[in-house]
């Protein structure tokens, strides 16, 4: 399905105007980029030309932009044009289709990682299954060309080899055309010298529904990111990698694995959410069974890297060779569109057939802690606790959310009732929030919490000093009102029915807000969400050590000593409480 077929008339006009402008930019850029080459082959045709024509002022702007980007490298130029294209598209369409272009700094880094994984640019078949405007195909063509020249290939042999072994697939025909254009510009000198016209190597279509049996030695790209509703046929097709909601990049990862040869390499730019999210547990299991991790690069800041993308991203490389299950973690600091600074964080191991969250070091200081914690830890269930989400979805009960207390109301607890310093306060400061919930009989009993519990905020950002922000709802408060109603932006940590809670809730709160446990959570978490699923998988101090930590708290031992006790508990040591 073409991108414009899903839009209204106004959006369609905006898409056509965008295409007309970008087409003019590329036509002028092509002329400037091929000056001096003979013979000069014509620019590839965009088969679905827009009916719109630019006015004189827009044509001048397009020429100025083409002149400006002609002074950039091919990779920088393709990124700039891709950015302009996406920014001019309707915002709703951009988000719906997950259309975002990859900065050259990241595409080059991912290609470096592919080389480190053992890929040879002079051999093997390559495909980008969602190639967009050519963020990967053009730089891959340049690397192939450079390596083929070292082997003594002629210009004609180079372009023929590349046209045979490098392929792209793209849903949006205009993006596919842009990708073909930049691929031809990357090879323009060789095409002119050999008097060879590059065949169309970008197939317009939906990779996810394609039933081709072709196999590739490298599947690379930046697949679209967005949730998608699947029909029963598609859900069955991708059932091995699905759990709950489907996301496009998860489907593209599954598809990539089925497109790879027996020793193939998968290299994607993806959101970090697949590393820990519950909806990606089946995908993690599939990846761990069918491939081995080679490298995972975390991007230090999401701001300014992908325009409009609010989630963190990683560069992930996997190999089907299955020689090991150990990968290398790094952090990338994006200095500008073309440069990154790389910091090595350490190795990590993913167990085979593993659908649990993947813990990966995010800084060099994490590696030893992670190794220790994976060897020595307990979980919330072993402490005697379970986690669930606050049951109230407020917009389904608007009429029952009231500002005044009556005989039929109970306190309504919102996210702001939990302060960043770990204190509980019944308040409703935010817009549309009120402090009371009206109970309308037994039908609402399932909403009422009648026991003290530890509340944790469900949404926190990595920029915050702590990701696990919690507060205990006091027994006295519960008893005073006979219960409370908890909104679903809070997690509830409660004792497991019938189980012994060996660790007190106060000790548990202290452990969760400790620097060490916060670090372990950050190594696992891949989004702003703090999910019940992740909390139940969190590596906590071994139970026997937690009991010693509890005693130290009761005895009034200082905070710094107890923080050290928590860190040492994972290594099998325990600091003596002074």
TrEMBL record:
UniProt-listed Enzyme Commission number(s): 2.1.1.72
UniProt keyword Repressor present: no
GO biological process terms, semicolon-separated: DNA modification; methylation
Catalysis: reaction(s): a 2'-deoxyadenosine in DNA + S-adenosyl-L-methionine = an N(6)-methyl-2'-deoxyadenosine in DNA + S-adenosyl-L-homocysteine + H(+)
Transmembrane regions: none
Gene Ontology MF terms: nucleic acid binding; site-specific DNA-methyltransferase (adenine-specific) activity
EC main group: transferase
Keyword S-adenosyl-L-methionine: yes
Gene3D superfamilies: Vaccinia Virus protein VP39
Matching PANTHER family: DNA METHYLTRANSFERASE A (PTHR33841:SF1), DNA METHYLTRANSFERASE YEEA-RELATED (PTHR33841)
Protein name per Swiss-Prot or TrEMBL: site-specific DNA-methyltransferase (adenine-specific)
Organism for this UniProt entry: Shewanella insulae
Taxonomic lineage: Bacteria, Pseudomonadati, Pseudomonadota, Gammaproteobacteria, Alteromonadales
